[in-house]
From TrEMBL:
It holds the Pfam family EryCIII-like_N. Belongs to the glycosyltransferase 28 family. It comes from the Bacteria. Signal peptide: none annotated. One of its GO terms (molecular function) is UDP-glycosyltransferase activity. This is Glycosyl transferase.
Length: 410
């Protein structure tokens, strides 16, 4: 079987795919990651073959403007899908050409990578969606016109034009199946044709420092903050100083993991940090999944990667949401009892201190986090999911009013 992978060029989205892609390779199948050049290094770093499609332009420039207008309640804001449509347009020609020459049996796509359903339909091969978190692209945040979540009559004209230019259909749903990396307790309801898969944490390659290999003398609390949050929501969204003010003097070992393997802490954010609390450790380029196993609590803005990694390790999670999917994620975490959601703004350091104290020292959040981890461990592993992909690839797809297009697994 040949699996063509179309991630959005966002590192955290791609990282969630890696365990399943390796499971496919270990089972003897071919995997090829096709994404914008900015993601190719991450794929290679994960030991996966990759090819660059499109150009190095970043959709963030357009998305930042739309995001801020959306958050400000601008009634004239255009479809939030537009930056992702432009990204798909830059990749489509290369991706369709690659697909016609490489001839995949199946396309595995990020639900926000619009070129995924386009190339699958243009080639007549099955499309499988891989959810890297709660399915808010389909059910929330106003991404009207998403090719995996909106009726074609509501699609932006630019998206319809893009699909039709490659002979692809417009349809309510292209995917023959959805693989869901989040457990039911952390997922929005109403997902049809779905199989839950165990979330296996992967946050990029990294080296375990000596201090992290030793058990902490005090409860270890990790504070992480997605670098994209400040980019999208502006400097006022960098709430780490308020979080640190709440934790100053608390009897914990404080680890600030404010950058991932591929992204450095920006200069402005570093300046906003100011003086760190005594004994706090600022680390860079250290994957979150290496830090969390020894932690008593996590504080984050509620990105899906941090959310899944905390749940998989059974770590109570204090979420300080800012934008996009984060408020939804925070509510889901709080509803399980495995953490707390701090919505009030301005953020009160006293609220942070109370929530982290409860998360790190009270038995109830730890017990709920343990139950969440056990729920995840009970799900099929990526390796156990590969036969499903094999069957979907062998079955092919049926296009209404047209031919059945199947492809034999290799």
């Amino acid at each position: 079987m040949r699996v063509l992978v179309t991630p959005l060029a966002v590192h955290s989205h791609f990282f969630s795919m890696v365990p399943l892609l390796w499971a496919c390779r270990v089972a003897g199948h071919e995997v090829l990651v096709a994404s914008q050049p900015r993601l190719v290094g991450s794929a290679i770093g994960a030991g996966l073959p990759a090819v660059a499609v499109g150009r190095s332009g970043d959709f963030q420039t357009d998305a930042v403007d739309l995001m801020r207008r959306h958050m400000a309640g601008d009634p004239e804001v255009p479809s939030m899908a537009e930056p992702w449509i432009r990204t798909a347009r830059t990749c489509a020609a290369d991706l369709v050409d690659l697909g016609r020459s490489w001839r995949p049996d199946l396309v595995l796509t990020d639900p926000m990578a619009y070129a995924g359903p386009l190339v699958a339909d243009a080639l007549g091969v099955p499309l499988v969606r891989l959810l890297w978190g709660p399915d808010w692209p389909r059910f929330g945040f106003g991404f009207g016109g998403h090719p995996e979540g909106g009726h074609p009559e509501r699609w932006p004209a630019s998206l319809v034009e893009l699909f039709e230019s490659y002979g692809a259909r417009t349809a309510v749903d292209f995917a023959v199946h959805t693989l869901d990396l989040f457990p039911p307790s952390l997922q929005v309801p109403g997902l049809a044709n779905r199989t839950s898969v165990r979330f296996v944490p992967y946050s990029g390659p990294g080296t375990v420092p000596r201090w992290l290999a030793r058990p902490p003398d005090r409860p270890r609390v990790c504070v992480t903050w997605g670098t994209n949050t400040t980019v999208y929501a502006g400097p006022q969204s960098f709430l780490v100083p308020e979080i640190l003010a709440g934790l100053d003097g608390l009897d914990v070992e404080l680890v600030l993991a404010l950058s991932g393997p591929n992204l450095a802490l920006s200069g402005p954010d570093r300046e906003r940090l100011g003086d760190l609390p005594a004994g706090a450790r600022l680390v860079e380029h250290l994957p979150l999944d290496l830090v969390l196993p020894s932690c008593a609590a996590l504080v984050s803005q509620g990105g899906a990667g941090a959310m899944g990694t905390a749940a998989a390790h059974g770590v109570p999670h204090v979420v300080v949401p800012v934008m996009a999917d984060q408020p939804t994620n925070a509510g889901l975490v709080a509803a399980t009892g495995a953490g707390f959601a701090l919505y009030d703004r301005p953020l009160d350091p006293a609220d942070v201190r109370a929530a982290v104290t409860a998360a790190a020292f009270d038995p109830q959040p730890r017990a709920a986090a343990t139950r969440l981890r056990e729920e995840i461990l009970a799900l099929p592993t990526p390796a156990q999911t590969v036969p499903l992909l094999e069957n979907l690839a062998a079955a092919g797809v049926s296009r209404p009013g047209g031919r059945d297009t199947g492809s034999a697994t290799r």
